[in-house]
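Service request form, structural biology core

Requester: graduate student, group of Dr. S.
Request type: structure prediction, single chain
Budget code: on file
Notes: please return the result as structure tokens.

Sequence provided:
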Amino acid sequence: MTTFITTITAMYTLQQPDPNYVVNALWKVTGVDGEYTANIDGSTQFTSQQGLDFIPYDQLTEAIVIGWIPAEAMASAQACVQGQIDSLITPPVSPQNTPLPWSA
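Core staff response, request fulfilled:
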């Protein structure tokens, strides 16, 4: 079973409408399944702090910002990471160019 970990890797701010107003967060989803690990980076832009009351920058936590990432973006990232891990566990089979039987 894959365990997913999301981390915020950077945040971009503007000084309006409030000081250090977060307008973009870069994040990474890492999946670990036994000895297999994969990850994907993502970015979410905000036009508001998700309709919530403004939280001063120095009071933000990683959990708060992760909560601002749309659920569908998180689900998509986790699905991509799971696909990478599945391919590591069971590598895809590639077709081989086999000589034509009548050319031998």
